[in-house]
Probable 6-phosphogluconolactonase
Amino acid sequence: MHLPHPQPKTCINMQRYATGMATPTASPSSLTLLLCDQSSMAASGKKSGEIFPSEEAVAEALAEYVAELSARFLKDKQFFTVVLSGGTLIHTLRKLLESPYRDEVKWSRWKIFWVDERVVSLKSQDSNYKLAFDEFLSKVPISQNNIYPMMPIDGSIPTPEEAADRYNGILKELVDSKILPLSATGYPKFDLMLLGTGPSGTVGSLFPNRPQPNTDKPWVTFLDDAPEKPPGRVTLVFPVIDSASEIALVVTGIKFALVVYVVMGGHRPPGLPKLPVERIQSKQRSVTRFLDQDAAAFLLPK
Ligand SMILES: O=C1O[C@H](COP(=O)(O)O)[C@@H](O)[C@H](O)[C@H]1O
């Protein structure tokens, strides 16, 4: 696969993606790429489109975005339902723990879910819940009653299939009690889905070259042969992810540059099937992308 060399001195404003006007399958030549000078962007400290000069700037913009959504959704409904991923995303949420967000956000009205989990004890270093709890949830006043881990809180470790059944049941109860609405296509509709991706284009635990990305029921599925450790995973199916009112895709770091390039419409190796992360664009709502310059290193104008 031939890729352009990164040019660290340039940055790119791809506002069209932020507004959902472009699709991931558009060719680079059809996109509006505005080059700007990295030093002026860094000096202004402001976000420019969706590619930010640093991971720190991504974290700041993400906090502003999430806090604004929380306020907007809570004007009309009792709870703000947020679905977390694991991985680097959790660290990037850190600015929400600082002023002004820490005091302004109505944390007691958040309900927290996960897009995926590793089938391990909640105390394991591999647990997405533990990561989120230690780094984020334990530092804000969200009641434990409003946190819905994908693994049992009693520390038991079910099989991946049992864990998926259990979470399906939890989501069903929340739908039945009208806390989670159903989308027009019959899937639970969360307010905000916070996604990362792996270098291979995963979303949650929907891995390329596995059947789960094409599964549409039940709402939560599982695998016991994930290509990355640990092998047991529970994950929301794609239509549940796609039904969320808002989706943020947060990608920082050079190891994601290739997958970002492909997702944003760059040249793709012949025969490469559509990656799970490429499927989250929807006509119903935009995907808000938060990329740092490292993740966007291959996105160069033609
Ligand atoms: O295993 C997982 O990895 C992905 C990506 O994590 P990152 O460290 O590359 O950002 C994460 O989104 C997912 O929730 C997690 O289970």
User: Anything to note?
Assistant: The longest strand covers residues 246-251.
